[in-house]
Design brief:
Length: about 70
């Protein structure tokens, strides 16, 4: 079964030495309040931006997103 969703992503921008668990918790709170499945935590205080990207999934949508991507490990 293929799911076609219009996914909205919440993006949290940071410029800190290191991403801490409180930053992930803050983004997860935003996701839950907005009832959105996916968020990105971007830290711009890194040499390469790919090192500062963290993907956060709302627990409510975790299984549905994994199924849509074909990941059966969850």
């Amino acid at each position: 079964m293929i799911f076609w969703w219009k996914i909205t992503v919440i993006v949290e921008l940071k410029c800190v030495e290191a991403l801490l668990p409180i930053h992930k918790a803050q983004l997860l709170t935003y996701l839950r309040l907005a009832n959105k499945p996916l968020g990105l935590l971007l830290n711009f205080n890194v040499v390469h931006l790919r090192e500062g990207i963290k993907r956060v999934l709302n627990n409510k949508y975790r299984k549905a997103i994994a199924a849509a991507q074909g990941d059966n490990s969850i």
